[in-house]
């Protein structure tokens, strides 16, 4: 009896499939990385079932690759060693809302929008917004962030506890319900961002927030990137509690206008959002307006209407898809680096000069409040020349970020695409990361080939 038949006995035939269409769906993500099919797709319903699957896989040295919705951008869920694609979509229950503790307990297949729909009943919301409607298990696995991280923090900041199935089948909890603890190693921090290489997340306890009384969005345009980033530094130094500060460069604004029938000035633009109460926001907006104007703001517009605000952020979130629709048949490559905020203008200018010298059509956007920026470009995967040029640009951007003391990835994760930079970025610590991997997964069955190139 082969291992697939054994899986069907452990679970049910409906939960274990070798259907080629489903295998194809689970052999790719939204990245430009080459697809590769798993041998089988398995749909567990409980942590106990996950444990049984992993025990069988560990005994027989079968790779296990956790799968959420496939929205990752660095090849995280592509099973290059074959084996089991462990689809957690059937584990999609909001298990408990604790409004007085500002906590929620969910299964890994719950999506961000699904959670916020449930939380709205309690006057609460979950803050991490990566743009894609990703699963919370996947967001924790890659330590996702997004537009709101400048105020509320990244995924790692929201995780109070995780239930994790380790490679030997053991089920552990990495935290608790308390707001803080000085007890033991910080296992939440170890598991968040581990990309399925140390275990399978089967439950999450997450921090949530009260829905702000008042929200105001704004759009500020500048002549130069330098002015825009200087304005961001001024806002942060002044202590204004910004919820979002997003930079969209001239090329990307052109793309927005073309695709969305808007008529925004085609210059570097900040998309802003303020959260607070009526009285506090009024003074924050007045002060912010003064600072933006002092830094050369050309045009400033605020939106208080919910529909108008949502439209503004939809334009920002859908920018990647705008590029995708502009080039049918090509794949999107999105770079992802973080540099110290003071170095951001130099880094973006360096990237723009490289883009123009290579005659590549690409836009630059970023979560400038925390120094994170992306280059969006479309690549013809049938053209080796285009692939090579895109990789050259990506490598240049990463190398420059690392030279400034930055990181090769701020939110997309390492996966396959950023594995080659780990030694350079982490130095001797990289060796100890590999030792942790060997200790927890000695047979290398958990998402093999990701993060560690050897």
Topology:
Blueprint: H1 3-10, E1 16-17, H2 20-25, E2 40-42, H3 47-60, E3 64-67, E4 84-87, E5 94-98, E6 103-106, H4 112-119, E7 124-125, H5 136-142, H6 149-152, H7 155-158, E8 159-166, E9 171-173, H8 187-191, E10 199-207, E11 209-210, E12 214-221, H9 225-237, E13 242-248, H10 250-260, E14 269-276, H11 278-294, E15 299-303, H12 306-317, H13 319-326, E16 331-334, E17 337-338, H14 344-357, E18 362-367, E19 372-379, H15 384-403, H16 422-426, H17 429-440
Parallel strand pairs: 2-4, 3-4
Antiparallel strand pairs: 1-2, 5-6, 6-10, 7-11, 8-9, 8-10, 12-14, 12-15, 13-14, 13-18, 16-19, 17-19, 18-19
Structure explained in plain terms:
By secondary structure, the chain is of the alpha+beta class. It folds into four domains: 3-89, Uridine Diphospho-n-acetylenolpyruvylglucosamine Reductase, domain 2 (2-Layer Sandwich); 94-210, Uridine Diphospho-n-acetylenolpyruvylglucosamine Reductase, domain 3, CATH 3.30.465.10; 214-320, 2-Layer Sandwich (Alpha-Beta Plaits), CATH 3.30.70; 327-411, Alpha-Beta Plaits (2-Layer Sandwich). The chain has helices at residues 3-10, 20-25, 47-60, 112-119, 136-142, 149-152, 155-158, 187-191, 225-237, 250-260, 278-294, 306-317, 319-326, 344-357, 384-403, 422-426, 429-440; strands at 16-17, 40-42, 64-67, 84-87, 94-98, 103-106, 124-125, 159-166, 171-173, 199-207, 209-210, 214-221, 242-248, 269-276, 299-303, 331-334, 337-338, 362-367, 372-379. The strands form four sheets. Strands 12, 13, 14, 15, 16, 17, 18 and 19 form an eight-stranded antiparallel β-sheet that branches. The protein has a five-stranded antiparallel β-sheet with strand order 5-6-10-8-9. Strand 5 (94-98) and strand 6 form a beta hairpin. It starts with a helix and ends in a 14-residue tail after the last helix.
């Amino acid at each position: 009896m082969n291992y697939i038949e054994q899986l069907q006995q452990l679970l049910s035939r409906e939960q274990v499939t070798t259907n080629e269409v489903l295998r194809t769906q689970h052999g790719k993500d939204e990245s430009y990385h080459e697809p590769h099919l798993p041998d089988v797709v398995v749909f567990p319903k409980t942590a106990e079932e996950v444990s049984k699957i992993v025990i069988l896989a560990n005994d027989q040295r079968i790779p296990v690759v956790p799968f959420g919705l496939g929205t990752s951008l660095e090849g995280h869920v592509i099973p290059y060693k074959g084996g089991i694609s462990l689809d957690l979509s059937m584990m999609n229950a909001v298990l408990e809302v604790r409004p007085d503790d500002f906590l929620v307990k969910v299964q890994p297949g719950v999506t961000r929008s699904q959670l916020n729909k449930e939380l709205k009943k309690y006057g609460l919301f979950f803050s991490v917004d990566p743009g894609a409607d990703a699963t919370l298990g996947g967001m924790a696995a890659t330590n996702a962030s997004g537009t709101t991280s400048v105020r509320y923090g990244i995924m790692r900041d929201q995780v109070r506890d995780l239930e994790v199935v380790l490679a030997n089948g053991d089920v552990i909890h990495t935290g608790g319900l308390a707001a803080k603890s000085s007890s033991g190693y910080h296992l939440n921090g170890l598991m968040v961002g581990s990309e399925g290489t140390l275990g399978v997340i089967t439950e999450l306890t997450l921090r949530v927030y009260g829905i702000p009384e008042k929200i105001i969005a704004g759009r500020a345009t500048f002549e130069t990137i330098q002015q825009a980033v200087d304005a961001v530094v001024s806002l942060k130094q002044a202590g204004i509690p910004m919820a979002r500060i997003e930079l969209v460069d001239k090329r990307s604004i052109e793309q927005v206008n073309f695709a969305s029938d808007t008529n925004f000035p085609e210059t570097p633009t900040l998309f802003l959002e303020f959260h607070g109460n009526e009285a506090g926001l009024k003074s924050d907006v007045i002060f912010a307006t003064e600072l933006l104007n002092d830094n050369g703001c050309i045009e400033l517009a605020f939106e208080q209407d919910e529909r108008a605000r949502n439209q503004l952020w939809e334009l920002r979130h859908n920018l990647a898809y705008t590029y995708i629709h502009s080039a049918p048949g090509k794949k999107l490559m999105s770079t992802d680096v973080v540099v110290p905020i003071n170095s951001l203008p130099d880094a973006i200018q360096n990237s723009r000069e490289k883009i123009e010298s290579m005659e590549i059509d690409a836009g630059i956007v970023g979560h400038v409040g925390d120094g994170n920026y992306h280059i969006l470009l479309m690549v013809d995967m049938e053209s080796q020349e285009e692939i090579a040029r895109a990789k050259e640009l990506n490598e240049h951007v990463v190398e420059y970020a690392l030279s400034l003391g930055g990181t090769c990835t701020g939110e997309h994760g390492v996966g396959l695409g950023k594995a080659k930079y780990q030694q350079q970025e982490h130095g001797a610590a990289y060796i100890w990361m590999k030792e942790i991997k060997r200790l927890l997964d000695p047979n290398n069955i958990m998402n093999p080939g990701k993060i560690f190139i050897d």
